[in-house]
Amino acid sequence: MSTVSSEQIIEQLQSIVGADKVRTDQDSLEQFGKDWTKIYEPKPLAIVFPKTTEQVQEIVKLANEQQVAIVPSGGRTGLSAGAVAANGEIVVAMDYMNEIRDFNAVDRTVVCGSGVITEQLQQFAEDNGLFYPVDFASAGSSQIGGNISTNAGGIKVIRYGMTRDWVAGLKVVTGKGDVLELNKDLVKNNTGYDMRQLFIGGEGTLGLITEATMRLARQPLPLTVLVLGVPEFEAIMSVLNTFQSKMDLTAFEFFSEKAMQKVIARGDVPRPFDTEAEYYALLEFENLSDETADVAMTLFEECMEQGWVLDGVMSQSETQAKNLWRLREDISETISEWTPYKNDISVVVSKVPPFLNEIEAIVTEHYPDFEIIWFGHIGDGNLHLNILKPENLPKEDFFAKCKDVSRWVFEIVEKYQGSVSAEHGVGMTKKHALTYTRSEAEIEYMKALKLAFDPNNIMNPGKILDV
Would you identify the CATH topology of the domain 223-332? Predict the structure, then answer.
């Protein structure tokens, strides 16, 4: 416990960053003390906005001295309560650490402050004739530091991988208050433990990321999108295998007919073709030449002949491609009015069909009135399970029943040796479920790592695991 008053701690924070960079008004505490989850009420002590690594270091040292916890805050777009400050913590918001500098065209790298918005980096890369490929719906508000801390994935993982694959180096302030420069942007660096990887996906529990050197890629050639209607889920896997055997895909997504019905009912996006199918696959690829489109059409026809595809459409313009993507990307926003129960889970790609079928069967058996909406990044085995609240069922009763659903889902995840959190992190909402994916021995090693970097347990305590 702190030996000084809250007012004194706030005064000390003001002396570090300036009075105008510390907020204690109720609106700011509410705004910066939470993420997209709505389970926990935010109750931070103060919101502090550092501008330099040195200021972050001073904040961490103060927190250690006064035994006050820190919660890092990026774009607050997380879905696991990893950025929620519910117990009088200091929220360290990275909004002012948003500089992009030291662009190196030869190495294709650029240094970003942790507060750089994802879309800002994407635009910078484009302005310099390059490409930052990690992309997702929250790109306009999520921050690079938060993306790294949660190892964000998104819609192009099948081709470009996760955020982890694009981090060349990190500057961090550990829970002890030490500043570390990790990896120094090297491609090859075989000199012991790569501690950079511990901070990627660490959800701020080991320390605070202040800068990241991000790798960039060449710009893709014009992209073409295919949407294919398939009669059963197993057929999606046959389609994936067929196309991947002859083409390099930049995305392979799926969604159900129920999901598409919700999107097209809004009237913003038309149905892609008249034929209804149980599921739909969305494929994206670089249109390298006329021959590429010909190969895609040949594979499409082959899938039709095999009965794996009922109908389909290929984009003929950038506008049409964007509209086809909206069939997939508008799902989350569209179904939000039904107060959905959400789960973000994964298995290896080959196990996806039986995995999905088992989950759907057990939910339908116990709660036949629940409407299940499926979509996800099928090319990397990541499924998003969404169950919509029946209109006549009170919210409290719905979420109580969903606790049973979570247990069943996680037991199936464990059976298939999958992950209870594919890309949204653990935070507080899935901490209890960590044992379904991690062994007790692994968790003990994780606790030891946590205490090595953060012996006083001030860095985002209560997230991922308890020590």
Answer: Alpha-Beta Plaits (3.30.70)
Say if residue 1's pLDDT is above 80. Answer: no
Q: Quick check: 393 and 379 in contact, CB under 8 A?
A: no
Model confidence pLDDT, tens digit, residues 150-177 = 999 989 999 999 999 999 999 999 999 9
CATH for 339-436, options being 2.40.30.10, 3.40.1400.10, 3.30.70.2740, 3.30.470.10: 3.30.70.2740
- The string of pLDDT tens digits covering residues 355-406 is 999 999 999 999 999 999 999 998 999 999 999 999 999 989 998 999 999 9
CA atoms within 13 A of residue 398's CA, in its CB half-sphere: 18
Buried b (16+ CB within 10 A) or exposed e, 226-254: bbbbbeebebbbbbbebbbeebebbbbbb
Q: How far apart (Å, rounded) are the C-alpha atoms in residues 233 and 66?
A: 55
- What are the structural domain ranges in the chain? 6-95, 100-218, 223-332, 339-436
- Distance from C-alpha of 178 to C-alpha of 86, rounded to nearest angstrom: 26
Query: Three-state SS for 14?
Result: helix
Looking at residue 393, what is its pLDDT? 94
Residue with tokens 């392979």: 252
Phi, psi of 30 (to 5 degrees): -70, -45
Spatial CA neighbour of 363 closest among 380, 379, 340: 340
| CA proximity to 348, closest of 309, 378, 386 | 378
Is 100-218 in CATH node 3.30.465.10?
yes
